[in-house]
Amino acid sequence: MSLLTPDSGLLFWMIVSFGIVFVILSKYGFPVIIKAVEQRKAYIDDSLETARQANEQLANIQAEGARILAEAKEKQNAILKEAFAEKEQIIDEARQKAAAETRLQVEEAARRIREEKEKAIREVRSEIADLSIAIAEKVMKEKISRDGEQQQIIDRLLDEVSLYKS
Amino acid sequence: MKNNLINNRLIWIALLLWSCTLAPAQADTKEEGVDVQEIVFSHIQDAYTWHITEWNGKEIAVSLPVLVKSEERGWDMFLSHHLHHGQTHHNYYIAAEGEHAGKVVEKNSRGEEVRPLDFSLTKNVCGLFLSCGILLFVVLRTARWYKKHPNQVPGGFTGLMEMAISYIEDGVIKESIGKEEYKPFSSYLLTVFFFILINNLIGIIPIFPGGANITGNIAVTAVLAGCTFIVVNLFATKEYWKDIFWPKVPIYLKVPLPIMPFVEFFGVFTKPFALMIRLFANIMAGHTIILALTCLIFITASMGMVVNMGMTVVSVLFCAFMNCLELLVACLQAYMFTLLSANYIGLAKVKD
Asked: Which chain regions cross the lipid bilayer (chain B) (predicted)?
């Protein structure tokens, strides 16, 4: 059957043309395409990796930023607290100082009042003595002479009066 | 399973050839019968002229160059229309019958009919050149696109080519041969795949530049299978040859009668032989079926209007269906040939 016997001419041309096609394609055809596809694949992989890294870095930066913000807030809080405490302290100190001053002034005033009072009492006492003496002189001039016994009586009486008063 | 497939195909072919011989026998009983066998065979086989059609009784055909070397007279070249209808040119003519029926023969000095060395650019050779040209154009254009557009993703036809190449490269070649060793074979296998695919596809196109039954010709598939045979055995490892001549089977299967080595050695040749027959038979069967279905219209022409109309509808529907099937077969057979070639190469690369 001629269908199953290969024809020599076609065999020859087939070897020639297939050989040429194979040589050309294995040199300029498929390796070029495959290489290009592989290169592109590597490029895409690289790009994906770079993008992933960039994303990671971005996430890191964001975390860092958040951390810094939190820190700053904490610091701010601390400063505020400190300032508040300081304020309280200052006010307290001022209040204490004022209180001390006031007390001193009050004491001073009291002391001065006491002194004034004593001085006044002393003055009044001598005045009264003088007055009494004058009165008694006048009385004595008229009735009795002035002796020690009488003077004693007068002093005692005056003490009693001043004690009674104070 | 593979052998089953071949067997099935062979049975199919046998049935078809048988039905083809039946059809003209029936037709011959009518007065104006259609010689289906002649039509089918003249298409499936090679021809010196590329017959296109007949118009108003005039044959429209492309005359192709005949290139022969006679033992006695040396080289000769002329166009094939000189040989039409049994004409003799430079003492060459196309034998009508006998051993060399349909081929260019000459009468030598002793008056015997001998066949000269025939390198004619026949229909199949021209079809082959055409598809080689298309293949080169398509692949080199794709390659050029990649050079012009580094690191870009192609669309359209280039994208399709990339998809096919990647699929064959990753899905077939890498899988079958192994990731370490596939590189030197990938160009060969890809060339084989696209070569067969494009020839199959062009063979399906019924109008002029297409339609040549290239991959359905045994010479073409023999060269392809022979290449695979050479590649497989040239790059085989020591372990592969050891497995053939001293396989791991019980000793009584090797000594004194080398049964298993013989079977294994036989297998070295049957594998590419199966490749050759599978591709040839598949494509030839496809062409035969489609032609036979088309001829059905002309056979029934003499059976009356109704029968003819009915058969025409049936035949056209079947033809459309068969063409779709052939499209599938065209891709499938290219894939099969590549897959099996890659598998054989992979088997020859065994390492223990």
From this structure: 121-140, 188-208, 214-237, 249-269, 275-301, 313-337
**Per-residue pLDDT at B190 exceeds 70:** yes
Q: Per-residue pLDDT tens for B32-65?
A: 567 778 888 888 888 888 888 888 888 888 888 8
Q: Does A74 touch chain B (CB under 8 A)?
A: no
To the nearest whole number, what is the mean pLDDT of chain B? 84
Check whether B7 has a pLDDT greater than 60.
Answer: no
Provide, as residue numbers in chain A, all residues whose Cβ is less than 8 Å from the Cβ of B183.
Answer: none
ipTM, 2 dp: 0.83
CA dihedral B292, B296, B297, B302 (to 10 degrees): 140
A16 in contact with chain B, both atoms CB, cutoff 8 A: no
Domain definitions of chain B by residue range: 59-121, 123-348
Helix (H, G, I), strand (E, B) or coil at A7: coil
